[in-house]
Amino acid sequence: MMNRVLFLCTTNSCRSQIAEGILKIMGKDDFEVHSAGVKATSVHPLAIQVMREEGIDISNQKSNVVSEFMGQEFDYVVTLCGVNAKSACPVFVGKAKNRLHWDFSDPAEAEGSQDEKLEVFRKVRDQIRTRTEEFIKESKELRG
C-alpha cells in the first residue's frame, strides 16, 4: 500500500515542487505524492532548471492550493518553510496520520546574479534530496 504524502509551502512554486519531484522519482513504488500552497502560482523556472540538472522533469507539475485537498487523508503532511518565513506556513486541517516540518529557506527570495540565484536553488535542492532520502529510509523502517 502506498503512503500518501502532501508537501505544503507558501506558494507551491519551489521547495514543495522540488520535494514532490524528488519523492516521485526516489520513492515511486512506495509513495503517492502531491504538493500545494496557500496560493497557487506557477512552478519557478529556476526550480525546473535545477531539477532538470538532476534528470528530474518537474515542468509539468502544477501549483495547487491546499484547499483542493480538503476531505482527503494523507499518511504524511510535510510543511517546508524557513524559520524566518515572511508569511505563515500553510496548515492542513484535513486528516493526516503524521505531520512533519522540514526547515528550508525559500530559494525564490535569493538575490544577486542569475548564477548566484542558481547556486541557492541548487543548495536547497540538495538539502531537500538529503532529507527526502532520510524520510524514505525512516518510513520503510516504520513499515517494517
Would you spell out the secondary-structure blueprint of this structure?
Layout: E1 3-9, H1 15-26, E2 31-37, H2 45-52, E3 73-80, E4 95-102, H3 114-143
Parallel strand pairs: 1-2, 1-3, 3-4
Helix pairs in contact: 1-3, 2-3
Please bin the fraction of helical residues. Answer: 25-40%
| Class from helix and strand fractions | alpha/beta
Domain module count: 1
State the separation between the terminal residues, measured CA to CA: 13 Å
Q: Mind describing the biggest β-sheet?
A: 4 strands, parallel
Radius of gyration: 14 Å
Named at the architecture level, the CATH assignment is 3-Layer(aba) Sandwich
In CATH, the topology is named Rossmann fold
Shape: globular
Order of strands, widest sheet: 2-1-3-4
Identify the CATH class.
Answer: Alpha Beta
> What do the pLDDT scores average to?
91
The CATH superfamily bears the name Response regulator
> Low-confidence spans: pLDDT under 50, at least 5 residues?
none
Q: What is the helix tally?
A: 3
Strand residue percentage: 15-25%
Give an account of the 3D structure.
This protein has 144 residues and is of the alpha/beta class. It has one domain: Rossmann fold (3-Layer(aba) Sandwich). It has three helices and four strands; from the N terminus they run βαβαββα. The protein has helices at residues 15-26, 45-52, 114-143, and strands at 3-9, 31-37, 73-80, 95-102. Strands 2-1-3-4 form a four-stranded parallel sheet, covered by helices on one side. α1 links the parallel β1 (3-9) and β2 (31-37). The radius of gyration is 14 Å and the shape is globular. The protein starts with a strand and ends with a helix. The relative contact order is 0.22. The model has no long low-confidence stretch (mean pLDDT 91).
